[in-house]
Structure to design on (245 residues):
């Protein structure tokens, strides 16, 4: 049943034998340029070779030959046909259509980016409808993409079209109040203890509390009157109604 009478001998037998060898085969499949090189050097050599092949197969861009400058009108042509002579003079110095297209293609993307960036900086919620703005601007002629007013008009339109989505997002977003959080207020000054306040003209053991007791006034009234006399309060307005002599 089995070739060698045992399953493990069948599966362990080699696939290719000595008779399968091809005479004249190179023992080293690498090219002479790659023999003895490290893997990193081989990769670099292949990259350089690929770059040279791409440069050889890529056609060079056609050179744009500028049109010859039209001849300048003579004095006789100016005298006989001044309008045509002036047109020829202007055409010799004016920019051609090809030159204008090259300039437009080179600076166009920068002008479009600047116009859009101006609207982005003006409206902080521009990013919320930017996809809709880009969709609308794709249907507008390219020459209007450099106008900031066009971007602003399209932004207002897109914001109106996305009103329901924006309102739903605002309702779902947590409420952020602009109220400023202040630290705790400054505690009121502690009332002065009149038992420790000494006054000139009193005995060493007497204080302002003794004066209050002798005058029959409360400590709060004494403190209030003391502030008014010291200039922290306002004294009552008095009017001298005595007649002059």
């Amino acid at each position: 049943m089995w070739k060698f009478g045992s399953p493990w001998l069948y599966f362990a037998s080699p696939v290719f034998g000595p008779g399968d060898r091809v005479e004249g085969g190179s023992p080293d499949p690498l090219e002479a340029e790659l023999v003895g090189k490290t893997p990193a050097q081989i990769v670099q050599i292949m990259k350089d070779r690929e770059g040279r092949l791409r440069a050889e197969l890529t056609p060079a861009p056609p050179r744009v030959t500028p049109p010859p400058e039209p001849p300048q009108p003579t004095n006789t042509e100016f005298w006989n046909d001044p309008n045509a002579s002036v047109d020829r003079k202007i055409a010799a110095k004016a920019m051609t259509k090809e030159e204008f297209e090259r300039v437009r293609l080179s600076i166009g993307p920068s002008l479009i980016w600047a116009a859009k960036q101006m609207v982005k900086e003006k409206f902080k919620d521009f990013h919320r409808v930017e996809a809709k703005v880009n969709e609308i601007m794709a249907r507008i002629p390219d020459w209007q993409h450099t106008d900031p007013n066009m971007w602003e008009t399209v932004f207002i339109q897109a914001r109106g079209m996305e009103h329901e989505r924006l309102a739903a997002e605002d309702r779902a977003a947590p409420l952020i109040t602009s109220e400023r959080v202040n630290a705790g207020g400054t505690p009121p000054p502690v009332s002065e203890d009149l038992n420790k306040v000494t006054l000139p003209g009193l005995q060493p053991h007497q204080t302002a509390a003794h004066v209050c007791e002798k005058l029959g006034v409360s400590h709060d009234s004494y403190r209030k009157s003391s502030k008014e006399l010291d200039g922290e309060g306002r004294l009552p307005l008095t009017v001298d109604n005595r007649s002059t002599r």
